[in-house]
Design a protein that fits this description.
about 290 residues; alpha/beta; 4-stranded parallel beta sheet; elongated; disordered N terminus
Length: about 290
Amino acid sequence: MFASALLRSSQPRLIVRAGRASAGTKFALRGYATFPGGKPNQARMGQGGGTTAKNDSSEKSFFSWLNNINPFALVGAATILISGYTLIIKPYFEWRTDLKKRADDRVKEEESGKVGYSDEEIAQFPFDTKNVVFVLGGPGSGKGTNSAKLVEDFGFVHLSAGDLLRAEQQREVSQYGELIGHYIREGLIVPHEITIGLLRNAMMDHPASNRFLIDGFPRNLVQAKAFEDTVCKAKKVLYFECPEATMLERLLDRGKTSGRTDDNIGSIKKRFRTYINDSKPVIDEY
């Protein structure tokens, strides 16, 4: 009997516990094998077994993967992400923000009437009753200086085509700013549609005046004809003749303080050529 008891004590004991299965849950059996001097070794049978073991395995796999990552590859990936944000994503959103701001500014200006006049307002304005005098001459011939004296003595409204173009160039929401700047720097003639539109709007800004001096316009025969066809005919033309050497000296001296992009030797020589080739025929025509 003692041997039999000893034999039984050396064999693992299997204890089976049965639990009542609730609704929707499978019946589960848990078996515990106990060895002498050892802790119970639990063997799970049924649904839900092995969850803790799987979690431990997943954590070990994750840390093992993390330890095997090449640090240079990690730095490279981070660099690519940062570069993509800096070079693509950030500039895109900045562009969209700037585009919206320009559109909002445009709407505000249109609502305040600063951009221009409607077709109906232009059609109703009495341009034909206005006395327009073209003031012509080479760059630096004294057109602006003498026009100021005529304004003071005879009550003219002085409209400088060059000043209007430069003001439009500086206007933040102008759609023609960059184009105008290019033509001015190169000493070329700005497309007449732009110049005539600015002059027409400037005349409409002074509805009570009947006398206008238009300084530095027309620059060629195409501009002259377009202005007379769409605005009104000029009543007179003032032409200031001046030697080229004198004009060059005046322009270079003015360039020291004017801040104008076209008051430099390169642009001045281009303007002289344009004046001789395009503006001289206008003077001969009138």
